[in-house]
Write a structure and sequence with these properties.
This protein is an alpha/beta fold. The chain contains 11 helices and 13 strands. Mean pLDDT is 74; it is low at 14-30 and 367-410.
């Protein structure tokens, strides 16, 4: 009995520790979104003459999928936010949307809640087959990705914003760089991947010659934030990301309007959106009232490290239907809880059937985590933005492996 109590106590301590790490990871994502929103909303004064710089994409709402019985959440505005790695500045189909966030805005309280959809989550695609969540954007651009989210998650999303990661490099350069203390172990990895960042951003790679506090340009700072080869892996990488974003925030809040204007001129060209000028101004008119609320990752309960056919390494929800219900409770706390649609229930059942991954009964009997932090102990799955997962073997005996990962970077 004493041994069981000791084991339970140890298990609880591990979960608490992992939960803290998870919050740090999610906070890094939230900070990125905050910077993007700050820059976009700061541009309202110039929107009339600069709206044409945006990659405006008109989406026919009739073409977007919507599950039967799903209605627009009264009192809420739901938006899809995508982080693209276009390599050529174009943010339509063919672009890797490595960040997928569903944002709900409470129209009354102005609270914004964010749910990051893990990009490798196995979900049903337009062709009725199954692939990673970010495959939809690559295959059919924002419209297909929105439809994928609506169908799999019982949502009614009609608009989106996509921002290219190169915008971060440009923003830091226009802010005249950041002062960061580089550890000796980080120098090697920064230099190893600096040229790759420069090639993507179209900038010059100035290699690091020493450790210690130094002034980094945009390419150096973004490379610093993306490496994860040092001790701590993703955990230390998210700490770097948080530091970089915090330093950007400090500079943005104290910079002049002329510099903000230059940033808008540059960043707007790396933003794709379905919002009209009128809609953007409407959203931004209450900018001083907005407040960032809770944020989370989806699915809440997952099994990873498996492969599915040609999709490579995937994240599988332990009961998609149950996770979708919990997602709605998170995004729309003022709405009455409802059961998922027949479409989502069918997708959920089929995912379990084709993967062999079944939701453990313990998750619904009060013996799970109890806090939505994940069926694998902490829900701390961190997909990064370009792969780098360990290989394994899928349940059908096929050879595992992540088909488009690049190892320890990005």
């Amino acid at each position: 009995m004493a041994k069981n109590k000791k084991s339970l106590k140890a298990e609880k301590a591990i979960k608490v520790k992992r939960k803290k790490k998870q919050r740090r990871r999610r906070r890094a994502v939230v900070l990125v979104v905050e910077v993007i929103m700050l820059l976009l909303l700061s541009g309202v004064a110039y929107a009339m003459m600069k709206f044409d710089k945006l990659q405006a994409v008109a989406i026919d709402k009739k073409d977007l999928e919507l599950n039967e019985g799903v209605e627009e959440k009264e009192g809420y505005t739901t938006i899809a936010l995508f982080g693209g790695d276009s390599r050529d500045g174009q943010l339509e189909e063919g672009t890797h949307a490595d960040t997928i966030i569903v944002a709900s805005i409470n129209n009354k309280t102005k609270e914004i809640r964010l749910a990051s959809i893990y990009r490798d989550t196995l979900l049903q695609q337009k062709n009725m087959g199954y692939n990673k969540a970010n495959h939809a954007y690559f295959a059919g651009g924002p419209a297909e990705s929105i439809s994928m989210l609506n169908k799999n998650l019982d949502l009614d999303i009609q608009d989106y914003v996509t921002v290219d990661f190169k915008a971060l490099v440009d923003t830091i350069d226009l802010l005249d760089g950041l002062d960061i203390d580089i550890k000796q172990e980080e120098v090697q990895y920064m230099n190893e991947f600096l040229q790759e960042t420069a090639d993507v951003a179209g900038t010059k790679a100035d290699f690091i010659t020493k450790s210690g506090e130094q002034h980094l340009d945009g390419t150096q700072a973004v490379t610093y934030a993306r490496i994860r080869s040092t001790a701590g892996g993703d955990y230390t990488r998210t700490e770097r990301q948080r530091l970089v974003i915090e330093k950007i925030f400090e500079k943005v809040m104290h910079t002049d309007l002329a510099t903000i204007n230059k940033i808008i001129d540059t960043v707007f060209e790396q933003v794709s959106t379905s919002f009209s000028l009128k809609e953007l101004i409407g959203l931004a008119s209450d900018v001083t009232k907005y407040k960032l609320g809770e944020n989370t990752g989806f699915p809440f309960d997952v099994e990873d490290g498996l492969t599915y056919q040609n999709a490579g390494s995937v994240v599988i929800a332990l009961g998609l239907a149950e996770n979708v219900k919990q997602l709605h409770e998170f995004l729309y706390p003022d709405e009455e809880a409802r059961e998922v649609s027949e479409t989502v229930q069918n997708i959920s059942d089929e995912i379990s059937y084709v993967t062999g991954v079944v939701r453990p009964a313990s998750l619904d009997q009060g013996s799970g985590n109890g806090d939505g932090t994940g069926g694998n102990g902490d829900g701390g799955y961190d997909p990064g933005t370009d792969g780098g997962y360990d290989s394994g073997t899928d349940r059908g005996g096929g050879t595992a492996g992540y088909t488009d990962g690049s190892g320890t970077y990005e």
